[in-house]
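A common beginner's mistake is to predict each chain separately and then try to dock the pieces by hand. The better habit, illustrated here, is to supply every component at once so that their relative placement is modeled jointly.
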Amino acid sequence: MSHGFKTVAIVGVGLIGGSFALAIRKAGFKGRIIGVSSPATIRKALELGVIDDSLPLADAASQADLIYLAQPIQQIIATLGSIDAHVRPGTLITDAGSTKAAISKAASVIKRGRFVGGHPMAGKESRGVEGADADLFRDCPYVLTAREPLFEAMIERIGARLVLLSAEEHDRLIALASHLPQMLSTALGSVLTDNPAALQVAGPGAVDMTRLALSSYDIWRDIIATNRESIDAALVACIERLQQVRAQLAEPAMEQAFARGAEAARALRKG
Amino acid sequence: MSHGFKTVAIVGVGLIGGSFALAIRKAGFKGRIIGVSSPATIRKALELGVIDDSLPLADAASQADLIYLAQPIQQIIATLGSIDAHVRPGTLITDAGSTKAAISKAASVIKRGRFVGGHPMAGKESRGVEGADADLFRDCPYVLTAREPLFEAMIERIGARLVLLSAEEHDRLIALASHLPQMLSTALGSVLTDNPAALQVAGPGAVDMTRLALSSYDIWRDIIATNRESIDAALVACIERLQQVRAQLAEPAMEQAFARGAEAARALRKG
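With all components supplied together, the output reads:
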């Protein structure tokens, strides 16, 4: 099966970059996969058969026809600032960063290559290439900020669900669907930390609702820094809703509040 | 193995009542288990071997030495108002209601029998006796509002973790550990319902965080009605925390907020 690309460079061979490599291989990609990462990560990625070989960024960029940036957001932005000089004309550069407007802005300097922003809505608790999984993207949304037929075909082959959104719309929606849940989980965890006696009566609900609170701030620092306004707007909307809940605690309207909450919950499970 | 009790009446043979019957049987209880429930439920419970037979409440109460009330909260309160006339002196009456102060108050009329409030922190999505599971209580907290050695031994034999709390302290803590997570999930679901475009970029985090939003309001109506003040206080604490998160979005202090949130999340997983 031809994937249209012959040489893929994965920059940042962690959970996402490593999983993308395994996923395209499983989907029939026969070309070469070059890893660009720290020596320790490259050693593990080679051992695990995730990549074929490794090169410094400039060399990988000059040989690849698809460059997949799977680093933390600020490193993606830094890479975009230097990579264009090394790529062959027409090379496709894409990324897997969790916010898109700041990255798209940084990508405006790409002239020899062409850039399309991406965000696979996939993940799991474990980080690093050790957790890489060929099926990580299966049935998950994968946002692209522009049409790119060859890469869209690749996304479909790895089993992800393509969603086309502008960078700005992505950031607004992801603040509601991903960043707000994170902040609620962190806030709940923090309230429980202040009330440790409550932990002794915590059941499965509290465990579920604090799973995201385990997320590493290393990742969230960049997300927050590059999507502050939308996260704040999502928090304002949710705080307003919680104030409504408070006002309705004794009212029959509470039943409608539960019904509205269940509506999205059910829609998410129909997916 | 003697469990100290010879005849157990389960009033309300749903998920919790049915699971309690299966759990004590699995733990070696050799006595009789009488179910008190609607005809349809009794038929299913007999088919599934959850109970040995069925009687009207007054007859079951007069024959049992342990009466386990596993109805919705308001029905438990109603049952407590009428049952005492039927029990033999010294019969232990306990319940599995999700709030304890209102039930304890209603139990003050118990004079022939003796009452101890209980709350097993267990559950699952499915309701009804069809979901009954002998291991439902395993490793879950089980609150009692007073010491009751024979029943404490039973709780330990079914694998639950005994927690002794006054009814008031239970209600305050459970508002933080259980009712607040429910309200956050419902509020998040409701915000997402108002922003349906966000659903297309929702990942596993949003799915987890809206699971509780699927809860039936039929159960929550009574919980809210009998624990309004503590739920409101928990909501106030969490809204305050979310306002802090908003203020810290651009600050280094956000890292501490994440650390505080993760602390309780990790503690819940050590359990």
